[in-house]
Every structure is written in structure tokens, then in C-alpha cells.
Amino acid sequence: MQQNVAYRSLGCYYYITMKFNYKRTILCSLAFGWIALFWGSYDSFMQVVNYEVYNLSSFWHGVIIASDNIFGLILLPIFGKLSDMSKGTRFGKRKPYVVIGTIVEMIAFAGVCVFASLGKDYFVPFIICLMLTLASLAAYRSPALAIVPDINPDKFRSKANAISNIVSVITTVMALGYFMLMPKDVKDGFWTYGGLMIGTTLVLLVWFCIAVKENKFNREVALEFEQEQQDLIPDGDVAETINFDTIDNTPQLEVDLKPSYNVNTEDTLLHLPHIDATKQYCIAKRFDSLRKNATFNKLCILGIVFCFYMAYNAITSNFIMYAKTILHFAQSQAIIPLIIAQAAAMLTFPLSSWLAGKIGRKYTILSGFVLMLICFSVTILFSTPHPILYLVFMGLGVSFGFAMVNIYPFYLENAPDSKLGKETGVFSVAMTLAMVVTPILSGVLIDNTGHLFGGFENAGFKVLFPYCIVFLVLAVIFALLIEDKNPINKRRRKRKILENNQCQ
Of 214, 203, 194, which Cα lies nearest the Cα of 34? Predict the structure, then answer.
């Protein structure tokens, strides 16, 4: 579908753009809501189960935490592509995957909570139910995530992703609140926790089934665009269609920067060393050409995704124990910094979308990474629950908001609309691979680096934030390699091209 159109009538251009539909986007984002509900407290929940019920080491905790992502590596791209290839039913081509997968997930998660409550003797059935829960989540996640970009063209995807993230943060905070309601005797708390999680998921699923008409939404998007064309073309005038995406790729006037003198000669008076200027020019030109290559940019963005989630998931899968052992929080309070971060992220999402429209997704993401590095570095200085620590996590939430809203749309900039499900699967694989590696790797480091941080019990958790900083620096390096797609520069190029063709 063509996204930006200009009509030329009597030598003047009139711009038409499709309007962003908040209602459709919010309804399609409900699936984000119950996915985030599960993941919002999953890592905290599993820390309690693995350490306090089954007395596992940090390594085996990491292996169990990573298992969901192993399923994701296999199932995310498969089901993403299947939903692309699906001819669809009267319910849509992605919605059936979402509904069936969610029902299986709820049933299996009920078993997880029951067997965790029964204690150590029921570890095997607990693991079986957990694996079934995680497999069903991985099976429907790509189709669920692809519904929102299906109904939004590229120019709206940062805004749409901001809406989806607001929905997901609301349910994430709900999940963290449910976790806080667990009593000190955690085994008794699993029944209440499981009931609240499954009940909330069921309510959102019913709302999704009733309100989301996938086929109707897709038809409405196509008809709105077609109607806009018919209404705004003046009768009797010739309409000229200009694809602004094509304009960005229009060959520009190339200036020959090669030196006009013979670079193979040397200054015989000064005996200057020979500099192969032609070779330097060719290398620079090849690198610039490489940065404009969609495949290269996609690979770099996948590198950003991998490194970012290596850091992010290390925090979410270990912070409860870090807060209890290093910061000396009580268990009921250890979740508070994460709630503050999520709330700050939610408030930041609209700002992040707006900022991406001004300076581009790349520099919005980089701004988030710089703030994140500062917050990680400051957190290392604390060993008690100081009030300033809450401000630091507020800043951390803002940095998460800048990054999370834009990374997925940033990747889809270089992907065809006909393969959104497949490309969502590829994106999810990079994210999932990080989530497979980082719980295990961070767990190994936590178990084996305690002697570097004083040697007291659980001292190894002090490696957590330095570990995150290393991967975040790598993410910044990948981001700097990508071509700048600053919207301001794009608009200037478009305006200049239109001016040159206007009112001849």
C-alpha cells in the first residue's frame, strides 16, 4: 500500500496522508497486554519458585529462565511465517493463532501454579506444565505482535508501538502488583497469584475476541486510502502520484571528489610520503554505500536488539535477588524500583514517538542508551534503599521508553509489508536469542565472581550492572554504524525535489 501521495493540480501539490486510528490500534494491542501481563512478573515469580521452593543455583535458575527463549528461537519465526502465508479465515489470518495459543497457555499456567504450591516433590509435573506454557506463548507471539503493524503504515508505527507499549506497561504494573500481594509463605501465594493472572488474561482475551475484527480492520485501512484518493483528486485535472519512499531513494547528483592531480606523484622537494587518495575515497564510498544497504542496516539493528536485551533481560531475571542481597530490600519492597521504572517508561512512550518524528528513530534510541548507561553506572554506587535510587530507576524507565518504542519499527523500516509476520519472527529471534544466553551467562558470572566483590554470600550479584554496561556499549556501537534517517533531513530533500518540479 502506498503511504504518502502528492497530487499535482494546476502546478501545485496537495498532500494526502492517512490518519492514525487510535481505536483500532488500542484494540489490536490488547494481545500485547496479556503477553506483557505474563512476562511482567514471570522473572520475579520464577526467582521465588527456583530459589525458595526448589533451592536451585543461579546457573540452573538461568537455564529454566532461558528455556522459554529456546522455544522462541524455534517457534517464533515458524509461526510468524505461517501467519503470513495463511489465507485467513472469517476471523482473520493471525487472530486464530492468538486465541488458541492463549487458551493453551492459561490452562498450562494453572498447572504451574498448582504444582509450585504443592512443593519440592512435584518438580517434574511443574516443569512439564511450565514448558507447555512457554511453548504456547512462543507459538502465538509473532502473529500477535504483527497485527498492529498490519493496520498501520510505516510512518505511524512508532506511534502505534507507543500505544501498544502503554497497554503492555499497564498490564505489567498489574502483574507486579499481583506479585506484591503474595504472602510471606510463598506457597500459599501461588494460588492467589495464578488466579489473578489467569482471570485478567481471560478478560482481555474475551474483549479481544469481541472487539478485534481483523478482516474488517484490514478492509477499512484499504478503503480509507482509496477513498482519500478519490475525494481529493480534482475533476478534470491530471493526478501525479509521488511515492516519498521512492523520492528518498532517487539517485542524487554525485560530485566527483577524486583529486584532479596525479596521486601517484610525490612532492620531490618536500619528500612527502605517498598517500593513495583514490583508495581512501573508494573505501569511504563503499562504506557509505554499505550503510545504505537495507540488509546491512537490518543486521546492525538485530545486533542492537541482541545486545540491548542481553542487558535488559539480565536485569529483569536477577533484580529481585540483587535488591534483596545487595541493596537490602525486603521481599515485598524489592519489586518497587521495577514498578517505578515501568511507570516512567509508560509516561515516556508518547514523548518517544514524538521525538522519533523529529530527530529520527536512530537518535531517539541512542539518547535512551546514553541515559541508560548513566543510570546503570549510578546504581552500582548504592548498597541501601536510598530515595535517590528511586529517581535513578525513574530515569532508567525513561531510557527504556526511548529504546523500546522505536527498536521494532526501526527494524521494520527495512522490511517489506508483505512479510511482516516473518520479519517480526526474525526480530523476535534476535531478542529471544539474547534471552536464552543472558540468564545462563549472567548466572554463571554471579556464581563465580563473588570473590571479586568481597566474597560474602551472594556477592556475585554485584557483577550484574557492569555486565549490562558492557552489552549496552556494544549496542551503541551497532547503532552508530546505521545510516541516519533523520526525518528533518528527509523532509528537506523531499521539499527540494518538489520545488524543482513545481510550477514550471
Answer: 203
Maximum Cα–Cα distance for the chain, whole Å?
90
Task: Report yes or no: 314 and 464 within 8 Å, Cβ to Cβ.
Answer: yes
The DSSP secondary-structure symbol of 427 reads H
pTM above 0.85, yes or no: no
pLDDT of 45 reads 83
All three cell numbers of 177: 502488583
Q: Are 81 and 421 in contact (CB under 8 A)?
A: yes
Query: Which pLDDT value is given to residue 284?
Result: 54
Which stretches of the chain drop beneath a pLDDT of 50? 1-16, 235-275, 503-504
| Residues belonging to the chain | 504
pLDDT of residue 13: 38
The three three-digit cell numbers of residue 473, written as one number: 556499549
Residue 225 lies in a domain: no
Identify the pLDDT of residue 392: 94
Tell me the one-letter amino acid at 266.
Answer: E
CATH number, position 399: 1.20.1250.20
Domain-embedded: residue 433: yes
Report the pLDDT value the prediction gives residue 377, as an integer from 0 to 100: 94
Quick one: CA dihedral 123, 129, 133, 134, positive or negative?
positive
Q: State the DSSP code for 90.
A: T
The torsion region of residue 8 among left (phi > 0), alpha (psi -120 to 50) and beta comes to beta
Does 501 fall in a domain? no
Q: Which of 77, 74, 142, 141 is nearest to 104 (CA)?
A: 141
Contact 116, 49 (CB under 8 A): yes
Q: pLDDT per residue over 106-129, tens digit each?
A: 999 999 988 888 878 888 999 999
261, part of any domain:
no
How many structural domains are present in the chain? 1
Residue 3 · residue 18 · CB < 8 Å: yes
Sign of torsion, CA 470 476 477 479? positive
Q: How far is CA 478 from CA 3, 242, 303, 365, 449, in A?
A: 29, 33, 6, 11, 28
Residue 208 domain boundaries: 22-219+294-490
**CB neighbours of 226 closer than 8 A, spacing ≥ 6?**
none
